[in-house]
Automatic annotation (TrEMBL):
The chain crosses the membrane at residues 139-165, 186-207, 227-244, 251-270. Keywords: Membrane, Transmembrane, Transmembrane helix. This is PTS system mannose/fructose/sorbose-specific IID component. The keyword Transmembrane applies. GO terms for biological process: phosphoenolpyruvate-dependent sugar phosphotransferase system. One of its GO terms (cellular component) is plasma membrane.
Length: 271
């Protein structure tokens, strides 16, 4: 008797993507990171592909191994795993170790790409734009936040479907392509430009201090503005970068420290 081939539908893939997207951080833990969310996302597909309890049990066990990567760029791995599980259920020529190895080996490079480009650039730019609009009293600030999430969702859909259709080899082509290198470089340049522009427009540090020479009173702020406009703001940015990037000070400590220092400097009339 000819064996019926099990084929995943568009609905199966979409359900897996959305289950993964909305549960990624919910069950995050230090022992296995995102493995529970990944297994939860795949469960309907695994139940469809594997008829016996033993096969389903093995599938659940291999996906409960340690797993951690960027959510939306992680579609590159998600689509690959879907293709491999489908082939394993039909042909049985893919081992458990191969599936686990693909996940483990790619979760680092995919996380690096996703955290720098998706979360570190695309999402950050949308949040900064939304903050700027909101600070100006524009309702479009809220829409910009939704736009950021929509872009990330599109990334997840594209990467998952791409790797599911093309299989395991597609992810190597995507990550090693010249186009991806150019996109990352351009995104980093754009991000730095946005950070500089937003620092100049949103970070404010003004001092009323003045120096008196005889009968002449010279304000420090006016002289620095004539020499290098926005100097104090950029110094604050470099200080935060030094504390967070070089000294590994947590963001919460930087925020509370800024509030305390600001209150103290204001009390003494320095700023």
């Amino acid at each position: 008797m000819e064996k019926n081939e099990k084929k995943l539908t568009r609905s199966d893939i979409n359900k897996t993507m959305f289950r993964w997207y909305f549960s990624t951080e919910i069950s995050l833990n230090y022992e296995r990171m995102q493995s529970i969310s990944f297994t939860y996302a795949l469960m309907p597909v695994l139940q469809k592909l594997y008829d016996t309890k033993d096969d389903l049990k093995q599938a659940l066990q291999r996906h409960l191994a340690l797993y951690n990567t960027n959510c939306t760029a992680g579609g590159l791995i998600l689509g690959t795993v879907l293709a491999m599980e489908e082939e394993k259920a039909n042909e049985g020529n893919i081992s458990d170790e191969a599936i686990i190895g693909i996940k483990t080996g790619l979760m680092g490079p995919v996380a690096a790409f996703g955290d720098s480009f998706s979360a570190g650039t695309l999402q950050t730019l949308c949040i900064l734009a939304a903050s700027t609009l909101a600070a100006g009293g524009s309702f479009f600030g809220l829409l910009m936040l939704f736009l950021g999430n929509f872009i990330l969702m599109c990334e997840l859909v594209l990467t998952t479907n791409l790797t599911y259709i093309k299989g395991r080899e597609a992810i190597k082509d995507v990550l090693s392509s010249r186009l991806m290198t150019d996109v990352l470089e351009g995104a980093n340049i754009l991000g730095m430009m946005m950070m500089g522009a937003l620092t100049a427009s949103m970070v404010t540090l003004v001092t009323p201090l003045a120096v008196t020479f005889g009968e002449t009173k010279m304000k420090i702020q006016d002289n620095f503005d004539n020499l290098i406009p926005g100097l104090f703001a950029i110094l604050v940015l470099f200080l935060f970068y030094f504390l967070i990037g070089k000294k590994k000070v947590s963001i919460s400590k930087v925020i509370f420290g800024t509030i305390i220092v600001s209150i103290a400097l204001s009390f003494f009339g320095i700023v």
